[in-house]
Amino acid sequence: MSVDIYKINPEFRDIMPKDIIDLEDNATWHATATKNRGISDLPDKKEILEEHSLCAGCPEAAALRYILTALPIPEDTIIVNSTGCTSLMFPHIALHTVHSLFGNQNAVASGIKRTLDWRFPDKTKDVIVLAGDGATIDIGLDYTLQSWFRQEKITTICFDNEVYANTGGQESGSTPKGQVFKMAPKGKVFDKVPMWELAVTSGCQYSVKLTASAPKKVAKVLREAVLVARELGPTYIHLYTPCILEIGLAANEGLWEMKEQDKERFESFRYVSPEAEEYLKECKAKGIL
Amino acid sequence: MANLGPADYSPYPVATYDGLYTPDEGKAMLLTEMVDEEVAMREVARVMLTSENATIFPGPQVLYAWSEEAKKKATLIKEMSEVLGAKMIPMYDYRPKYPKIDAEVEINPNHPNLTIWHNNIKACIFIGVHCHYANVALKIIRSETDCYTIGMCALSGHEDAMATIRDQHSEDLAKFIEIAKEVKQELGK
Fold first, then answer.
1. CB of A44 within 8 Å of any CB in chain B?
2. Residue A184 carries which DSSP code?
3. Where along chain A do its domains lie?
C-alpha cells in the first residue's frame, strides 16, 4: 500500500483540487522519486509543510521542515507527536502522524513499531517520536527512558524551546538555571536536565545535541539517527528550537539566537556507539547515507 | 450565539437522543424506521433523483487507489453519479482548511455545513469517509442544514444520517445502481 494512498483513482481526477493532484504527480516519495528528498527540495515541494499555524518566524517550523526533507522513506514513516507547539503543525503535513497523550509518546511509538514489525516483516517502517521538552523531559520522562532501557528501535527527537511556550511561559526541566519567564518570575532554581547525557546512560545508540541553525546538519543527523534506530536500537536528537516570543525576540531573530547558542548551552554533543559507528560507515559505503 | 439543541455539546451522535441507533445487519435506517436494505436503496435513489443539487461526497477511502476494492468502488461511484445526475464534491482529506475552505469545490468534516449552504445542496451521499469524520460531519449537517443526508457505509452505518445503509461493498453499490436506474425510469427522468 504505502505510496498508493496518495494515488488518486482516475475517475476522481477531474474533481480533485490541483494541490492534491500535484501531490501525486510531483511529491518526493521514496518509492517514486528519482533521488532522495533533501534540503534543496524545501522551496518548491508542497508536501514539506507548505503552511503551518505557528507564530511567524518560529524556529520549530523551520526545524520540522528540515526533518521532513531528511526522512529516508517518508511514506513508510510514522511520526508520533505529543501536546505542544509542534502538535499544531502535524495536521498540515502529508505524512502518517499520531498525536499521543501528553508525555506517553515513546510508549505509543514502541507499540506502533513492534506492531509494524510484526505486521510487515518484509518492509522497512520507521517510527519517529517528535515532542517538545515538556513532553520528553518532564511529563514523559518515564516513558522516554523506559523505551530506551527496552532498546526500542525508534528515534526520539526533542524540540527543546526550554519553556512551556503555548501555555504562557512556565519553566520546564529543560529551562536553564536562573531563567525568568512570565509564569516563572522567581527564576529557575536548578540546572537544565542534560537529556542527551541521560540518553547515553539509558542505552541510546546515538545521541546528538545541536541547534536548528544549520539545515544540512540537522538533515544529516536525522538520517543517521533513523538508520541507526532501524538496525540497532534507540536514538536521540536534542534540538534547540527557541521560542522567540517567550525570550523576547522578533520574528527574524530566531536564527541568530540559535547561532549564538551553538557556542554556549547547545555546543555540539555527539555520542555514537561503536556498533552504530561501524554501521554508519557501512551505510556510507553503500551510498544510503 | 446559536441556540443549543437537546444534544448540547455531547460527543455522541445527535440522533441517539431521539432513540436512533445504527441498523441491524442486512437492514437499513430511513429516518426513524428500520427497513430492508432494498427498500432503503429505492428511497435513497428517489430522494437523490428528486432533490435540488443532489451531491455525492466521496471520501479518502474511495478517492485514492489504495486497494482493489477502492478502485472498483471508484468506477461504481462515478457511474452512480451519472445515473443519479448528482454532482461530486470530494472530501479528500480531513485537515482544517486555512485561511478558508473553497466551499464550491470541496467539503471538510470540520465545517461541512459551509459546502451544503454554499451549493444549496438538499440531498447528499457520504461514501468512503472514515467513520469518526463522517460522524462529525453528519452531526454538523444534521444540526445546521435542511439537507437529507445518506450514509453509504462499508461498516455499521451512521446514526446521524437521515438514511443509512450499512455493509456497502462494491457488489452492493452495483446493486444500488441497478435499483437507481429502475427508480429513474419510474420517475420518468
1. no
2. B
3. 42-286
Chain A from 80 to 139: CB within 8 A of any B CB: 91-92
Per-residue pLDDT tens for A87-111?
888 877 878 899 999 999 999 999 9
Distance CA A262, CA A260 (A): 5
Across the interface, which of A1, A7, A20 has its CB nearest the CB of B92? Answer: A20
Chain A contact for B70, CB < 8 A?
Answer: yes
Residues in B touching A46 (Cβ below 8 Å): none
Find out if CATH 3.40.50.2300 is the number for domain A42-286.
Answer: no
Cβ distance B66 to A5 less than 8 Å, yes or no, reads yes
Chain B residue closest in CA terms to A3: B66
CA dihedral in degrees (B151, B154, B157, B162; nearest 10)? 10
Please report the ipTM that was assigned to this predicted complex: 0.90
pLDDT in tens, A117-158: 999 999 999 999 999 999 999 999 999 999 999 999 999 999
In chain A, alpha helices (H): 18-26, 59-70, 105-119, 133, 141-149, 195-201, 215-231, 254-261, 274-286
Q: Please, which residues have CB within 8 angstroms of residue A211's CB and are 6 or more apart in sequence?
A: A239, A240, A241, A258, A259, A261, A262, A266
Q: Are A1 and B71 in contact (CB < 8 Å)?
A: no
The kind and range of the H/E element at A210 are strand A206-211
Reported as a pLDDT band with limits 50, 70 and 90, residue A189 is: very high
In chain B, what are the domains?
24-185 (3.40.50)
- The closest alpha carbon to A229, from A195, A279, A194, belongs to A279
State how far the Cα of A241 lies from the Cα of A258, in Å rounded to an integer: 7
B71 touching A (Cβ < 8 Å): yes
Minimum CA–CA partner of B61 in chain A: A5
Helices (H), A27-163: 59-70, 105-119, 133, 141-149
Residue B3 has a pLDDT of 65
Write the residue in A8, A17, A91 that is nearest to B64 by C-beta: A8
Classify residue B174 as exposed, middle or buried by CB count within 10 Å of its CB (0-12, 13-18, 19+): middle
